[in-house]
Design a protein that fits this description.
By secondary structure, the chain is α/β, with parallel strands linked by helices. It folds into two domains: about 70 residues, Helix Hairpins, CATH 1.10.287; about 60 residues, Transcription elongation factor, GreA/GreB, C-terminal domain (Chitinase A, domain 3, Roll). It has three helices and seven strands. The strands form two sheets. A five-stranded mixed beta sheet has the order 5-4-3-7-6. A hairpin with a 2-residue loop joins strand 6 and strand 7. Helix 1 runs antiparallel to helix 2. The longest helix is centred in the first third of the chain and has 30 residues.
Amino acid sequence: MGRYRPPRPKGSYYITPEGESAMREELRQLWKIERPQVTSVVHEAAKNGDRSENGDYIYGKKRLREIDSRVRFLTKRLESLNVVHDTPSNVNKVFFGAWVTVEDENGEENTYRIVGPDEFDLSRKQLSMDSPLAKALLGKNIDDEIIFESPIGKRLMVITAIRYQTNL
C-alpha cells in the first residue's frame, strides 16, 4: 500500500473574529512558547552524546517537526482567510455567523452557530458552514422546513429562531 493520500478538499475561507483570534493565539503559543522550550530540551539532549538512543533528543526532534508543520499550516491558512465582521442587512435569514435554533421531528430544540471549517466544534454548538446541516440552513428564514442528509438518514427540521450575536 502506497503512502499517497489525495489532497483534502479545501474548506471555505470564512472565519469569525473569535475564530481568527483563537488561531492567532495558537500560532503565538506554538512559536513563542512551545517551540523555544522544545528547542532547549533538544539542545541539552544533543550535548549528551549518542543521539540514536537518546529519547529526549528523538522525541524532541519529532515534536519540533510537528510544531513547524502546524505553524506553516496556520500561517498559510490565516493569510487566505476572510474574517467576517459585519452582521448581514437581513437578520431574518440564516447567513454565516448566525445562531440558529432548529426543532426536529421529536420536538427537540438545538441551537447552533454557523462558523468556518477551521473553528467548528460541536461540543460548543459551532457548526461548520460546509456541513450538510449548515448548507441546508444557509439562506433560509424562520419557520422554514429543511431536509438534510445526516449519518442516520434524511432528517427534517424547522427553523425556530435566528439571531446574530457573539454570545449565547
